[in-house]
Write a structure and sequence with these properties.
- The chain is an alpha/beta fold.
- The chain has one domain (4-245): Survival protein SurE-like phosphatase/nucleotidase (Stationary-phase Survival Protein Sure Homolog, Chain: A, 3-Layer(aba) Sandwich).
- It has seven helices and eleven strands.
- It has helices spanning 16-25, 72-82, 101-107, 109-119, 149-162, 227-233, 251-257, and strands spanning 4-8, 30-36, 55-60, 63-68, 89-96, 124-129, 173-178, 186-188, 199-204, 210-215, 236-241.
- Helix 1 (16-25) packs across helix 5 and helix 2 (72-82) packs parallel to helix 4 (109-119).
- The mean pLDDT is 92.
Length: 265
C-alpha cells in the first residue's frame, strides 16, 4: 500500500495550490485532504478553543475531501484525531506566496499547520510558492495565474525522499520555498530576519474617523545562505525548522542574574 499523507493548507480547500500538491503527491502516496473551508492566511499556529469545529466531507475535483470550519491547526488536529488518519507525513501547501524569514514563519498558517503536526508527533513539510505580485496573495485562490508545474515537481521530489527516510536530526519540519521561476537547484538555508519593511498606512473613513492598514514593501535581499537570498537567486530554499524556541545562548547570563536557590544577583 502507498504511504498515507494528510494534505492541508491555509489558503482554503478551494486553493489551486492545494490541488497542485494533491496532483503531485497522489502518484506516490494515499493522500487525504483536510483543509480549512475558507481563507486562513496569516493566522499562524492559532487554534480554535472557544468555539466548536465543524468538518464536512465534500467532493472537489472528483476527490473526497474534508472542509474544516477553522484554522489550519484545527484541520491537522481533526485529521489526526477525529478522522484517525494516522499519516506518515503531513504536507502543508502549496501556499500562494512565499513564507520566508523569522517574521513570516511566525505568522504563516501554512507553516503553523506543519508545526502543529510535528508537535503531535508527525513529520511535516510546508511548501510555498513565490509570487511576483503581492496582490496575488489576496485574489481568489481558485484561480491563480502562476504555473504550478515546477512546484509539483518539487513537492513530489522532496516528499518522495522523506517518505523513505526521516527528516534530518534536529529538524521538526522542513520549510520549502519555491521561486516563481526556478533558475537553479536546491539550497539548504537559514531563516533571514525579515521579509517586509513594516509600515502602517493611516486612512479616514467616510465619517472622518481614522483606520489603519499594515503594509510595507518586500526587502530587496538578505545575506548569503538565507532563505530570502536563495529565492532571489532562483533556488528552491530548504530550511530545517525546530519546535524548540529556547535561546540556549542566553542561559548563562540569565543564571548569573537569577542564581538557583537565591534572589537576584
Amino acid at each position: 500500500m502507498k504511504p498515507r499523507i494528510l494534505l492541508t493548507n491555509d489558503d482554503g480547500i478551494n486553493s489551486a495550490g492545494l490541488w497542485a500538491a494533491y496532483e503531485a503527491l497522489s502518484p506516490i502516496a494515499q493522500v487525504t485532504v483536510v483543509a480549512p473551508a475558507t481563507q486562513q492566511s496569516a493566522v499562524g499556529r492559532s487554534i480554535s478553543i472557544f468555539e466548536p469545529i465543524r468538518a464536512h466531507e465534500v467532493e472537489m475535483n472528483g476527490v473526497r475531501a474534508w472542509a474544516v470550519g477553522g484554522k489550519p491547526t484545527d484541520a491537522v488536529i481533526i485529521g489526526l484525531y477525529a478522522l484517525d488518519l494516522r499519516p506518515v507525513m503531513v504536507v502543508s501547501g502549496i501556499n500562494i506566496g512565499e513564507n520566508l524569514s523569522f517574521e513570516s514563519i511566525m505568522t504563516s498558517g501554512t507553516v503553523g499547520a506543519a508545526l502543529e503536526a510535528a508537535n503531535q508527533g508527525t513529520p511535516a513539510i510546508a511548501f510555498s510558492l513565490q509570487v511576483e505580485d503581492q496582490g496575488d496573495k489576496f485574489d481568489d485562490p481558485r484561480h491563480h495565474a502562476q504555473s504550478f508545474e515546477e512546484s509539483r515537481r518539487v513537492v513530489r521530489e522532496v516528499c518522495g525522499i522523506f517518505l523513505k527516510r526521516p527528516l534530518p536530526p534536529g529538524a521538526d519540519i522542513l520549510n520549502v520555498n519555491i521561486p516563481s521561476v526556478v533558475k537553479g537547484g536546491y539550497e539548504v538555508t537559514r531563516l533571514a530576519e525579515k521579509l517586509f519593511v513594516t509600515g502602517v498606512e493611516k486612512r479616514l473613513d467616510p465619517r472622518g474617523r481614522p483606520y489603519f492598514w499594515i503594509n510595507g514593501p518586500l526587502i530587496d535581499d538578505a545575506g548569503e545562505g538565507t532563505d530570502v537570498h536563495a529565492i532571489r537567486k532562483g533556488n528552491v530554499s530548504l530550511t530545517p525548522i525546530t519546535l524548540d524556541c529556547t535561546a540556549e545562548g542566553a542561559g548563562p547570563a540569565l543564571r548569573a542574574l537569577f542564581p538557583e536557590g537565591g534572589g537576584s544577583a
